[in-house]
Specification:
Layout (H helix, E strand, L loop, with lengths): L20 H5 L5 H13 L8 H9 L6 E4 L3 E2 L9 E2 L2 E6 L3 E7 L12 H11 L17 E6 L1 H7 L4 H17 L3 E6 L2 H4 L10 E3 L17 H5 L12 H16 L26 E4 L15 E3 L2 H6 L6 E5 L10 H4 L2 H18 L4 E5 L6 H10 L2 E3 L7 H6 L3 E5 L12 H4 L4 E4 L3 E3 H5 L3 H9 L4
Parallel strand pairs: 5-6, 6-7, 9-11, 9-13, 11-12, 13-14, 14-15
Antiparallel strand pairs: 1-4, 2-3, 4-5, 7-8, 10-16
Helix pairs in contact: 9-13, 12-17
Length: 460
């Protein structure tokens, strides 16, 4: 669930809900070819380019459904090996002169696929500004709307990106759109049907553009262009969305498991039945990422920490502890994880024994059965009094957005770099751990027994 797999071989920028590789091999046109044909046909029409002169003319001579060309034909050079092209998009002028640009099942404006450059280029064109943010915004009767519609099931089948990375991309999109003062809507066409099994439908949203009177209605200060639109993850200030993250997480947790004492959400009635009833809310929940870390990749930007770190923070009064981790059945794991299923099981049971010695009266449970969905995993972390995660783009969001205290490892340039700002925002609630860590690359060179011995070593 955690980190993205290589996307060089999956660099398609858009796709059709019903298309498959077999369809394309049999001679059918893929989404890119269809889109280019559509653009070619539209270029033959007299469609004006969207700019300040055009929108003023359209406003004075409003024609419902007027089409406009938005953006430029550009080729961007990225850090990765492929170079997606950002073609002109066709927008539509709707009631009141609002420009609406629809992105349907496209990934060519999402972080991790093409970084932030194409998205911010589009937003600048929509807002008719040269920089994000801008010192002088064009005065429009309605702010432009970037309307993103995705098929979550299609995304999962076509791309290997982990759900934590998708969630990151949604929040980086929201930051950039807000800084550009563009409305953004993220929605799915299969969301309600997928909410029990998938995380992404929980992040549907309509985020109105900030106003001139209140240009940054979120945490902190209005980000710079570098902080909103950088193609590198480290400068992007995802921490500025912390209150939106907390709102989204808590709404999800309460909807899944029901309101509890001091754990409720203003948009969820206290007496609303939970989607999953009769779930015990545990005092402590630990997200243990182990499969790919134990040998899936030779990476140095994530790893595992010693078990002694949990003893530093877990309350000695804890009565229940839950551990959420990958399934122990190979067929239920992604390719990066199933090769180390047996090792992950051994590590998990070692942690159970370690915690049981520390909390002899506590009930300690492992949650990774076939009935345990990803939304349930998130809800367990969100609703706990103490929740823990390691270096993981999957675990970070429920941990920092939950009702209790959230504990996370210090991030780096590749994984959760924004986390270093969080303890200052919510001191005493969001705690950054600085534990001894073995990286994935180091663990690949160790045998299982040496790994288990290292986990339980006490700090010198």
């Amino acid at each position: 669930e955690d980190e993205k797999e290589d996307t060089e071989n999956n660099s398609e920028s858009e796709f059709d809900d019903e298309s498959t590789n077999d369809d394309q091999e049999d001679g059918g046109k893929d989404g890119n070819e269809q889109d280019m044909d559509q653009n070619a046909n539209e270029e033959n029409e007299e469609i004006p380019h969207w700019n300040e002169t055009t929108w003023k003319h359209i406003l004075d001579n409003y024609v419902p459904g007027q089409k406009v060309k938005v953006g430029k034909n550009e080729t961007f050079l990225f850090r990765r090996s492929y170079m997606p092209k950002a073609r002109e998009l066709i927008g539509e002028i709707r009631e009141g002169g609002q420009l609406v640009v629809d992105l349907v099942n496209r990934t060519d404006h999402f972080f991790w696929f093409v970084e932030q450059t194409p998205l911010c280029s589009l937003l600048r064109s929509m807002a008719v500004i040269d920089t994000i943010p801008s010192a002088a915004h064009v005065s429009m009767p309605k702010r432009p709307l970037l309307n993103i519609t995705l098929c979550w099931d299609c995304l999962q089948k076509k791309f290997s990106l982990g759900e934590g990375n998708w969630i990151t991309a949604f929040y980086t999109t929201r930051i950039a759109a807000a800084a550009a003062r563009v409305d953004v809507q993220i929605q799915c066409n299969d969301g309600r049907d997928s909410q029990m099994d998938m995380l992404l439908p929980w992040f549907e949203t309509y985020q109105p553009a900030p106003t001139e009177e209140n240009p940054w209605p979120f945490h902190g200060q209005l980000p710079t262009e570098f902080e909103a639109c950088s193609d590198y993850y480290e400068p992007v200030r995802l921490d500025l969305m912390i209150d939106e993250i907390r709102n989204d997480m808590r709404k999800m947790g309460v909807t899944m498991f029901g309101s509890r004492e001091n754990k409720s959400h203003p948009s969820v009635p206290l007496d609303q039945p939970p989607l999953v009833p009769d779930i015990e809310i545990e005092d402590v929940v630990i997200h243990l990422r182990c499969g790919d870390v134990l040998g899936g990749r030779r990476r140095t930007d994530y790893g595992m920490m010693k078990f002694s770190e949990y003893k530093k923070w877990i309350s000695k009064d804890a009565r229940t502890v839950g551990i959420v981790t990958q399934p122990f059945e190979k067929e239920r794991n992604r390719s990066l994880d199933y090769g180390k299923v047996d090792d992950c099981r051994a590590v998990t049971y070692k942690l159970v024994d370690y915690l049981q010695d520390f909390l002899p009266s506590a009930k300690i449970s492992i949650h990774n059965s076939v009935n345990e969905s990803l939304p349930m995993t998130f809800a367990r972390l969100i609703m706990a009094d103490q929740s823990f995660t390691t270096l993981s783009s999957f675990g970070i969001f429920p941990v920092i957005g939950g009702f209790g205290k959230g504990y996370f490892q210090k991030g780096n340039g590749g994984v959760n770099p924004f986390s270093k700002y969080l303890p200052e925002i919510y001191p005493g609630e969001l705690i950054m751990m600085d534990a001894p860590v073995k990286t994935a690359a180091e663990l690949m060179d160790m045998d299982l027994q040496s790994i288990l011995d290292w986990f339980v070593e006490e700090d010198s």
